[in-house]
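Entry 0007
Protein: 8-amino-7-oxononanoate synthase
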Amino acid sequence: MPFHAFIRNRLDELRSEDRYRVLPDTGKRNGKYITVEGQPLLNLSSNDYLGLGDDSVLRAAFTAAFLEHGYLMTSSSSRLLTGNHYLYEQLERELAHLYDREAALVFNSGYHANTGILPALTCRHDLILSDKLNHASIIDGSRISEAAYRRYRHNDPEHLEELLEDAVGKYRQVFIVTESVFSMDGDLADLPKLAALKKKYGAVLIVDEAHGAGVFGERGLGLSESAGTVGEIDIIVGTFGKAFASTGAYAVMNELIRDYLVNTMRPFIFTTALPPAVLAWSLLTLHRQAAMQVDRSRLLHLASIFRSALVDKGFDVPGESHIVPVITGTNQRALGIAATLREAGVLGMAVRPPTVPENRARIRFSLRASLEWADIEHIPDLISGVLS
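Output (structure tokens):
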């Protein structure tokens, strides 16, 4: 089949499977609401979990700093050339201080971090053991690396230990990789058990806190903080693009690993650095979120009430976090519920394969601390007719 004909045929297949995607026409954000194709909708599909992106006081502080210091909108170079602005060093010192770790390193995105760290640290004599539901960026980083790669059953430390036991004496180093809060099911990794297995078998433990940072922990450091395992995890990856309402990502670690990544991690070496303006905003949001304990508690309490209300209606709602997925099974049902929500002024996006497993399509509600129960209490009744 000719190349372009193949592409057209595959797109037609995606349409027939209700898996075809288009870029939405999103406009202005205004607090709890976002304009999509001219319609203001209650935004339940944002990763701005603490509402920092809408914080007018924070924006005013940033604007004043921007004007005072003249922060540039581009770095025009990689960090190893002329892009290593002094704000990078401030941000990394602050991250290391918050986590009480030796060092931190800032990246352009969480995807950059996860597709660069594993290939840099591993070789063909190593083994990566990854939770089956880890994010695509972790999967891609594992595949890019030369290491052997196996997945353990989701949130199953017993299966992980079987694989660790089988690996004894066969590899130079074993790496355990997991998310802390799983992005699609909203459930939590058992970090104390993983830390214990890491210690027992001499493995390296890497935890992605993309959806945990800002939401869990006294200072918003993630599930690793609330679980008391920060010091037992070799590398903690986090993102500025979700609860911290900015752009970029980071990892905290010891000085030795940081130095090695600076010298060997290809997405770090060969990427234009983040603009100073972005670094300045990240510093502001990082400082602000560290004191938002009340907001974190309110968010998790709201999610618990919402999940219980959905379960009471008979819905399949996994997880135990601020990410509240309603499993629909078929893609068609997910799209139908999303359309019903939109007609009622609510943005709840349908998530379909390959983002989630086959026959596990869903509406993924991402709650924020700025929401009130009155904003969402009608939703279980609203969607119950679609799935009945």
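Curator remark: Residues 62-289 form a domain with the Aspartate Aminotransferase; domain 2 fold (CATH 3.40.640.10). The radius of gyration is 21 Å.
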